Amino acid sequence: xxxxxxxxxxLLALCVAPAHAQSLAAANASAASASMDTLIYRYQxxxxxxxxKYTLRxxxxxxxxxxxxxxxxxxxxxxxxxxxxxxxxxxxxxxxxNRIAERRARxxxxxxxxxxxxxxxxFSETAQNLIAERQHGATLNGKAVA
Length: 146
Fold this sequence. Notes:
This protein has a two-stranded antiparallel ribbon with strand order 1-2. Strand 1 (about 25) and strand 2 form a beta hairpin. The protein has six helices and two strands. The relative contact order is 0.13. The termini are far apart. By secondary structure, it is mainly alpha-helical. The chain has a domain at about 1-15 and about 35-120.
């Protein structure tokens, strides 16, 4: 639902916004600037790319990387000057900021749950290492793994 709301707001902003949207500082707060919709597309592409790379969700590697991702995006948004945006860009900014905060809070809850049950599954680290090796293209010896 959050994604649908974000997409609706983005479409609304594109319909209402002037042809040349106001420029913003890029997500990394460098001198380069990008429109808010470009920033949203970049966020979505980055998040989807990480989802494809880290397919094993229940691992320390996944939780650490995604926490770093959301923290970097939150920091980048905080570095932007909200007051300088057009009204539609401000709406997009707030929707993106709320989406990041919601995803980050959910990730932290899931990470806490994972850490609570991790000691109860003593072979999980071994299984995670085997899955990681297989994802990197290593051929596993079935007899040795068993």
